[in-house]
Amino acid sequence: MTTAALDTPTSMTRRRSPRPRLSAAQSWGLILIAPYVLVFLIFVLYPVCYGLWLARHPQTYEHLFADPIFGRAVLNTLAFLILGINFKMLVALALSGFFVQARPWIKWLSVLFILPWAVPSIPTILSIRFMLNPEWGIVNQVIFRLTGEDGPNWLNDPTLALSLAILVHIWKSLPFWTLILIAGRLAIPGDLYESASVDGATGLQKFRHITWPSLQTLYLTCTILSMIWTLGDFNSVYLLTGGGPADLTQVLATLGIRYLRLDQVDLSMAAIVVALPFVLPLVYFMMKRLSK
Q1: Secondary structure of residue 20 in the 3-state scheme
Q2: What is the pTM of this model?
């Protein structure tokens, strides 16, 4: 049989079949998603790549590590992560057990409790800064009327100023994490607590054997998320202390602004890049936990 005989119309059609075309729905999908992809490339991917390009020189990191303010900023950031977050999550866990009670006055109190998180950061944190003013702030005025002595200069002491910044951060974000843990508590079946009450279990035993095993994964996930978000928390320090006094309350989130003011763009970008070793392990650990 010859080759021409093998080239039947059917085989020719199979070999020369046109490529499948996009359907109308697929075409509209590509058209609608194109603006989001463009925005991501322009406002996310390009700034990140450009910042990494500016901080590419090893000499930049040598200058950054030699700056004593950078070392102090790392210690302040660790204080935020270790002290502030753990204290905040423990308080949120305790408050979630309080607000989950079905009492009318607790519902009204929960509305007031959520206000610090719902109100924008700029007016609230600046109001606290004005209240702590050593000359005309309401806090020192109350201290003077009660004791007859002048109050301390709250934001002029580095340790006290950093402690107040951590407290402001806790006060601002505490309602959010409390609501998350309240939702976790409400998802626990009430039959478990009723059976434990019949067996004579105390409140501490109920928490140990029912509440905590049910909230353990959620609590750990919230803690990791809080660490990631706290590393980028700019408002608590910048609006309250401005990094002062003498740049001793700077954290990694505000250190870049200090270098930008000094017209040191490469150091500003490097200060952001060095925060990645803190962020990436947390992101990896959180995604690994969630994938299970």
Answers
A1: coil
A2: 0.82
